[in-house]
Amino acid sequence: MKQIIRQRLVGALVLLALAVVFWPIIFVTPQTDEPFTVNPMPPRPEIDESPLPKPVSQRSEVEANLVMPEIDEESQNAAIEATLLPDDETASETDDPFKSIPTAESLTSSKTPTAPLEGVQRDAGGFAKSWVLQVATVSRKTRAEGLVKQLQEKGYEAFHQSIQRDGKTLWRVQIGPKLQRSALRAIKTEIDKALNVDARVIKYVQ
């Protein structure tokens, strides 16, 4: 009796499983997806290709109100004449005329200030005045570079600038710039001895 009941239960479970599997296939209406529609590409936008108006320059208005730093041409020219070295083509850039001058560090440390520092001076345009020591004026860039390198090895803030004079390019070797003239006067005597020039403290011109 128990064997018959067990068989019927197994048969009922099999029928139930088959009903679960086939019920959706037989009795559920399949869902039909709507077709995918691709919209046509929109028309190309119109582009305004008319030429742009020419920009209006404000340069003339700016230059009319622009105040430039003052330049003392007389002192600049005098410094060139006072520091012009002979145009010696045989002079070697490796010759060091500054061997005997003290280093910038030793010169600064040995200097004992006896007066208060000068105030920062300004020209008529309100620009702060800075100063350089005109060391030398030479006709060859390589010679100017050599002098600058030798001064820099001594710790001085040296540089060179080109300038046009009588249709020729000259190179000025300078130390600075400094806001205090006194910071440059201390080395002037040593430079004069080394190069046999009359070094000048002049206003720095970029």
Characterise the protein shown here.
By secondary structure, the chain is α+β, with helices and mostly antiparallel strands. It has a domain at about 70-110 and about 120-205: Alpha-Beta Plaits (2-Layer Sandwich), CATH 3.30.70.1070. The chain is built from six helices and four strands. It has helices at about 1-25, 60-65, 75-85, 105-110, 140-155, 180-195, and strands spanning about 130-140, 160-165, 170-180, 200-205. The radius of gyration is 45 Å and the shape is elongated.
Counting H and I runs of at least 4 residues, what is the number of helices? 6
Q: What is the rounded distance between the termini? A: 120 Å
Strand content: 15-25%
- Structural class call reads alpha+beta
Instruction: Tell me the name of the CATH class of the domain at 70-110 and 122-203.
Output: Alpha Beta
Helix content: 25-40%
CATH fold-level assignment of the domain at 70-110 and 122-203: Alpha-Beta Plaits
Low-confidence stretches: none
Characterize the biggest β-sheet: 4 strands, antiparallel
Tell me the number of strands.
Answer: 4
Order of helices and strands: HHHHEHEEHE
Strand order of the largest sheet: 2-3-1-4
CATH architecture of the domain at 70-110 and 122-203: 2-Layer Sandwich
Shape: elongated
